[in-house]
Specification:
about 200 residues; alpha+beta; five-stranded antiparallel sheet; four-stranded antiparallel sheet; elongated
Amino acid sequence: MKHDTIHQQRFLRPSARGFTLLEMVIVLALIGMAMGGAIAMFIVTSSERQLKSAAADLELLSKKARSIAMVQQRPYAITFFENSARMSPLAEAGYTDEELEARLEMEQEMLDGGMAAPKFPPVRETLMIDQFALSVRRWGAVNFVPMLRNDPQVWRFDPNGICEPMSVRIDYEDGWMEMDFHPLSAGIRDSSMEARR
């Protein structure tokens, strides 16, 4: 009987066993590796995030141009300048800022003079790309053409939902990204990137 009591006491007593030094070292090493990987990923992908953000903004602008062209049933365009991309009706493609301002003033004067407002007013939107350098490659071309101040490139979007096949390259101080846009959806079909930091 005494033997049963001792046996029961041994199993009822809480375990005083803790973690071994080896278990603690392994856990600390795993936590250190996870933190090191997270910090390295944050540092490494800083320029990658910048490039992907600029690419997403450009893709959004291209999809807007395609959608608006289909809704308004008139061609739209994105004009690439040195540090910006501007969406507007195709008739305004390639205008400098001064020429576009003069056109807007003329439209306002015509509306003030009693001319009927158009059924769909033109949609204009500018995407500023200050810290990046843009270059484009048209369908069938081999090399990318950098944007120059006096030579803007125009990307056309037709009312039937088709856009001109286009590739755009965004150069950043710590990397680059090339995107091929699909002519039926105006979305990014394929991309390649190099981010050095």
